Amino acid sequence: MGEPIISLSEEQGELNISGISMMENTLEYYRDIKDKVDVFIEQDELPLTVVFELTYFNSSTAKQFIQLLSKLEEAEKRHKVIWKYPSDHSVMHDRGRELEVLVDVPFEYIAV
Amino acid sequence: MQSYQLNKIEKLKEHFCKDLISLYYRGVFSDSFSDVLVSLAEHETHKSVRKKLNFLMIEVFQNIIRHGSEEESGSEECFGVRSIQEGLYIYSSNNIDKEAYEDLVPKLDQVNKLDKTALKSLYREILEGRQLSEKGGAGLGLIEMARRSGNPIQYNFEEKGNQNYQFNYQLDLSAEKSIKLTKLQRLSLEENMESFSLCAKSKVLFLFKGDFKKDNVKSLVGILKANTQSASGGSNYGFKIFHTGVELIQNISRHARSTNNFTEGLFCLIKTDEGYYVCTGNYMKPGEFSDMEKHLKQVNQYSVGELKNVYLNTLKQSVLEDSSSAKVGLIDVRRYCESLIEYEVNNHDLGMYLSIGIHIAVD
Question: Is the dihedral of CA B43, B329, A91, A28 positive or negative?
């Protein structure tokens, strides 16, 4: 509880982050996946799709997301973000749009 | 900044100043919370009686669920746990009918007269002989409470009219297995009732004073979520309260002073006429006060319309720093709640004490 489920499928070029992210030490929690994304972008030819499906994230998680998504900016491959949000939860939709403003990566939105 | 709601935090802080841990709960009583409350009450200094404390807390909490009145209105059920010096105190108050009252009085009287050995044989006798009553107990619960706590059950009844009684009782146990609490050391039920009536008068739904170590955050916000959801009417409203709780609690664990590995803090959820008031109190790390005050002043200066851009700009700036904090927690809280963050700093003997509170109106 309080920590998201993170899974990276290198064959499909897909990173999934789902659930709730509200732990305090987000820096430590997201370090490993940020490193893996670095390696993936450098070594793999596939573009990476980051699929978020969250019901909540705190402000220090927002910072980790920006750091993570910034890694997709520099590459020339067509990385993208799919932002899934609960259809009755407009705040989670808005919080996705706010992240989009801060990074140069295309976002697709899906209400679930 | 003077605030009627925020002053409550100072008062409650003073009132519970001798407590290592205080828990007061007047919310939704459901089985899923007993474990959460148990985890909040845990502490290193009473680990030798951990099992006993857990068992008794769950027993008392479930008694409220089992025997509490089924009517929503007018029921005054509350549950509390305090750790003060050598003693641990589990408190319960709930409304019962005349039948339950007449059943309880002789049982409590009997249980309190018996010593440990006699309690044990009475327990066996009942277990082997009689059948369980409809509501799932034949005094076994009371016997177990007296036996395991090692002290008589403190209790009283207040007559409420209409054949209703408020049943208040308290279990006392020593914080250390090998030590027995003396009568003088023990907190009296009356004194504890006064504390909890201060909480009730202050319209506190939930209070936690204790160690704001990381894993407590989840328990605290879980309680918050469940107790505000029914009033929420929409998930955006629920989000505001949940988010405010998370950010304010994490603010404590980041900025509160830690002594002997104990990060003391106070968290309160208060019901107001228009919604809820979420507030916290904590001693600050030395030297952090002026930065925090500056930050709070600045956050309050922005208009609601400006806050979104301030949030985005601050977040972007923070990305360059290698720490967990994004420095946008309070900005984010203020922009969703659309009210000012109230705060007050008082200089106590033990250091600078910061109280922070924010009102969340029901849409």
Answer: negative
The secondary structure of B35-85 as a DSSP string is HHHHHHH--GGGGGGHHHHHHHHHHHHHHHHHHS-S-STT---EEEEEEET
Which residues make beta-bridge pairs with B158? Answer: B166
Q: B229-241: string of b/e by CB count within 10 Å (b at 16+)?
A: eeebeebbbbbbb
Distance CA B125, CA B46 (A): 32
Q: Are B359 and B341 in contact (CB under 8 A)?
A: no
pTM of the model: 0.89
For residue B74, the model assigns a pLDDT of 47
What is the distance in angstroms between the Cα of A46 and the nearest Cα belonging to chain B? 26
What does the DSSP assignment read for B271-304? E-SSEEEEEEEEEBPTT-HHHHHHHHHHHHHS-H
Report whether B165 contacts B98 (CB < 8 A). Answer: yes
Q: Show residues of chain A in contact with B313, CB under 8 Å.
A: none
H helices present in B114-139, as ranges: 116-129
Q: Across residues B10-16, what is the average pLDDT?
A: 93
Could you tell me which chain B residue has the CA closest to the CA of A25?
Answer: B324
Helices (H) and strands (E) in chain B — how many of each?
12, 11
Question: Does A62 sit within 8 Å of B326, measured CB to CB?
Answer: yes
Identify how many contiguous H helices and E strands chain A contains and give both numbers: 3, 5
pLDDT value of position A2: 80
Confidence band (pLDDT; 50, 70, 90) for B235? low
Are β-strands B351-361 and B154-161 bridged in parallel, bridged antiparallel, or unpaired? Answer: unpaired
Q: Which of A105-109, B147-151, B175-179, B256-260 has the highest mean pLDDT?
A: A105-109
Domains and CATH numbers, chain A: 5-111 (3.30.750.24)
Q: Do A1 and B218 touch (CB under 8 A)?
A: yes
Would the ipTM clear 0.85, i.e. be above it?
yes
Nearest Cα neighbor of B309 from A66, A101, A79, A61 is A101
Which residues of chain B are at the A interface, by a Cβ-Cβ cutoff of 8 Å? 214, 217-218, 221-222, 234-236, 239, 242-243, 246-247, 250, 253-254, 308, 311-312, 315-316, 318-319, 322-326, 328-329, 332, 336
